[in-house]
Fold this protein.
Amino acid sequence: MTEPALELRRVTKAFGRHVAVEDCSLSLPAGGILALVGPSGCGKTTVLNLVAGFEQPDAGWVLLGGADQARVSPRHRKLGIVFQSYALFPHMSAADNIGYGLRVAGAPKAEIRARVEEMAALLRIGALLGRLPHELSGGQRQRVAIARALARRPSLLLLDEAMSALDRNLREEVQIELSLLLRRLGTSAVIVTHDQREAFSLADRVAVMNAGRIEQVGTAEELFGQPASAFVVEFLGGVGRLQAVAEVRGEAALIEAEGRLRVTAPAPPGRASGPVRLYLPREAVALRPTPTEAHAEDPAEVLLVTQLGVERRHHLRLGSQELTLDLPAFTDQPPCRAGDRVFLAVDPARVHWFP
Amino acid sequence: MSGARIAIPRGAAPWIWLLPALLLLLPGFVAPILLVARNSLNIDDPMGGMVAALTFANYADILTDLFYARIFANSLLLSAGCALACLVICYPVAYHMALRASAPARILFWLVYTPLLVSVMVRIFGWIILISDTGLMNSLLTGSGIIAQPLRWLYDTEGTVIGLVHRYLPLMMLPLYTAMRKIDGAVVRASTSLGASEWDTFRRVVLPLSIPGCVAGAQLVFAGAISDFVLPNLLGGTSLRLLAPTVLSEAVTEVNLARSATLATLMLAGVAVVLVATQQAVARWCRWAANV
């Protein structure tokens, strides 16, 4: 069995009194792609710097290919890093940038040239090799940065918000190419991003970070299907939120909001009765003109409907609470209008609730 | 209405902001240069004063005279040497402060500028105390038996160089430090992560990226040092004749105003050529510099 490409074991890092990363553990199998997502300041970039060796953990271990990196300088970790600003050497041509790692390693000129051309072909920048970074567009610089990071054939590639400077179409194009490229080369990668679309499109698994801790690691299905915390649900978004009261009865809980919405949802072990937050994912809820099983009386009032492309955002008033639901816009149901009275149909198996 | 406004015509607006500078520079800087250039075409009257003329005789005299050629060479080499010395002294400081020191330590960097708070005359007398034959340094060296005879620094070329380097050091530091501060820390980390040693990163990344700063600083020191007549006169000797003191002595002691004006014009042209040439070299070899 091969060692994981990257493993963090109970890593903690503080800057002064600010704990940037607290007791983080994760493991990335060889060839896997992991995305770290979270709001700014959640510690995801610090994790990347700890892996790269630009920071040293206060406690815990960083292992690359099974080997502890505590005494290994960033120079010797043999990682490919794509920086947020690309960090291309401004005085070197694209070719010299890509070949830099091999050049400082003292590789023969012919080998460097062959590798540069190979990388350029993979990233389709063959015609740009003679240009200086300032003569390249943002997308082209991005490709040069990726080619430079991959030229030494690192076993692990780190990308720090590497797409955030690109416009959306270009970003998606580069994401697809990078995804194919990493799979073809069998390179493991850790991607730091605040853009969850990017995280899910590139990575097989996504780690959601909050205030220095990893809240949950999983596939898109796991994160959306069984979120581990209210933070994960809210960070991933696309849910309506209601204050409710839960009454736990064995493996199920009766959750009631505003005395009119009643849902019997599964209760994970350890959940207690009391006030809770009830999350309604878009796939768990629909609006009906007539009473439903969950919502039999006192309909909600539609305050405002805004169009968000293929979805519509419904601002509803349910008793004393306001509820925002993004629902598919173009369905068989007639669209709601402000002033309509509607009942919520809820799929109890798909809702999430947390104390 | 909230009172009258001064109407500034749109087309003239950019010029308005230059007005204070122009009012100072046109009569105080441009006019004297033009007058000196004009004087260089006159003929010196041996009885005193100048005879108005339009002749290049002074230029022909000076440019064919080995005596002046040597003075030009002395000044060029000495000023270039001072620029190099300032670069060598400032480079490690700027490198350390810009790329390695913590933010609080960078305050120390401003110590480089404290000499500017002291008049150049005071600093000259300070150097005289330090480097004269019976001064502090020579007393220490002879007293401790390291040397038998005091070293002759004051009233010789060493004195001039020490004074010039000290005086123009801050002019080297600022552009150098600024150029190094502009180097993106991520670029240095990128180099490290690609396997480069600290020396490789310095040689292949930091040094090339600091070249425009080196050139800018060297230009300032060179231009300052070549036109300085105070320090060579007060700290230097007679063994090495320099251009700026010669311009002064031709004008004041010899009262050869036209010849002095010719030397001054040639010096100005020489400095301009050096500055433009080095600027062109940077523009050519550091094409990236305009976009960093």
